[in-house]
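Wed. Picked up where I left off yesterday with RRM domain-containing protein. The coffee machine is broken again, so keeping this brief.
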Amino acid sequence: VAVHTIMPRATKKQADEMDAEMDTEAEDPEIEAMQRRLKEMEDEAAKLKDEHEKVDDAMASEEGKNAEEEAAKKQEADARSVFVGQVDYASTPEDLANAFSGCGTVNRVTILQDKFDNPKGFAYVEFLEPDAVSNAILLDGTEIRGRKIKVSAKRTNVPGMKAGGRGGRGGRGRGRGGRMPMMMMMMPYSPYGR
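Structure written out below (tokens, as returned):
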């Protein structure tokens, strides 16, 4: 059996006295110590946040410098490279290195492949000397493994630029390579009979 005790409501004066008693209890040394510790922790958190922001800023500026250095290295390597098109699918990097060795010292040959590791039919040849590029371009139209190759200086891709200069479909006109859409094609016969 539960016993409920009914207490009279405190008057405004009594409520104020109770609040005053609580305030005097708040001045307890333990509570003051906890409040000081809380203030110290908040200050320490603010300092850590400032240090974290400084480190982030330093890392961002370092990444920017590294990105610029990498872009400069890539552009310099592209200036020493040529694009080779119409490469026979059976050609190896050694075949291309031998073909271009008369132009200058070949640093690297890259034959691009699709996702099934089949050659795409073009390659890049990187030289140690930039002047070897002009000599390599003279090999445009020569045959390697029975195919006439196309040789041109490698261009550096600029992020955000698309082929054709206008973006989208590369300036080919209407969809599907400039042809009429399927629904607009003229039918040589009537779909409804005669």
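Quick read: The longest strand covers residues 119-127.
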